[in-house]
Amino acid sequence: MNRYLNSPFRMLCACGFLAILSTTMAKNPALPLFAQHLGAGTLGIGLVSALSPLAGVLVSIPGGMLSDRIGRRAMLLVSALIFASAPFAYLFVSGVWSLGLARFYHGLATGVFMPVAQAAVADAHSEAKGEKLGAFSSATLAGRFLAPMLGGVVLWLGFPAVYAACGLAGIGVLILAWRLPRFEERREDAGPRPPLLESLRQLMASRSILAGCVLEAGILFAYGTFEAFLPIVAQMRGHAAWVTGTLFSVQVVTVP
């Protein structure tokens, strides 16, 4: 196993697997049930579920731009620190608002990690970029597939057990990220970069990028609603959490 993980690309795939395993297990199917347990109504459950994606929206573009300036590895370490610490914040949650804060903090990790990790793969593999990005995506999907089933089973031991398991996966991300090399050393120098705000303005002025963003937003809106309330509906109908987790895992298989 140690020999296998000596490859930077394989380490990055392992990071992706554990990172998505951790963040997905924290929400599927546990999060809505935890929010309900804390006394949240429909509005509260929806709000708590929305805060992690909101964090991702706010930090994804700045995180990617910062990685162009200070390095991919540095930003991956920042996200890994959050992955390693955020799950333990759930253990100290005492109400809906503190749960929302924990979710927002956890969402910062995924928002930074995914674009920076994909950029690191592209930096290191210019000749087989598509193949390597596909392999990395498969690794993250494997984590997304396993997480709901595992989370549903562990939930039988209680919410603290779920978030302790998420924390162990997050610590694994941090250990692997610490061993990663500086991927940007293989990039070609593209000359001086525009200021961060100017780069953001140029990005938002692209109609094709905005169109893709709107399309994906619509898809994620529909799935997010399903994700937030299916565990509650399933519980009302007498289904165990592991059954709901299995349903979430099965739908990952249909992702093309």
Task: Produce a short descriptive summary.
The chain is mostly helical and 256 residues long.
Q: How would you describe the overall organization of this protein?
A:
The protein is mainly α and 256 residues long. It has one domain: Growth Hormone, Chain: A (Up-down Bundle). The protein contains ten helices and no strands. The two termini are 29 Å apart.
Topology:
Layout: H1 8-25, H2 30-37, H3 42-70, H4 72-89, H5 96-124, H6 129-154, H7 159-178, H8 196-204, H9 207-236, H10 241-253
Sequence of secondary-structure elements:
HHHHHHHHHH
Whole-number average pLDDT?
85
CATH topology: Growth Hormone, Chain: A
Morphology: globular
- The total beta strand count reads 0
Number of helices: 10
**CATH architectural type:** Up-down Bundle
How many domains? The number is 1
- How many strands, which pairing sense, and closed or not: the largest β-sheet? none
What's the CATH H-level homologous superfamily?
A: MFS general substrate transporter like domains
For the record, the CATH class is Mainly Alpha
Helix content: over 70%
Point out poorly predicted stretches: 185-190
Query: Would you tell me the structural class of the helices and strands?
Result: mainly alpha
How big is the Rg?
18 Å
Query: What is the strand content?
Result: under 5%
The end-to-end span amounts to: 29 Å
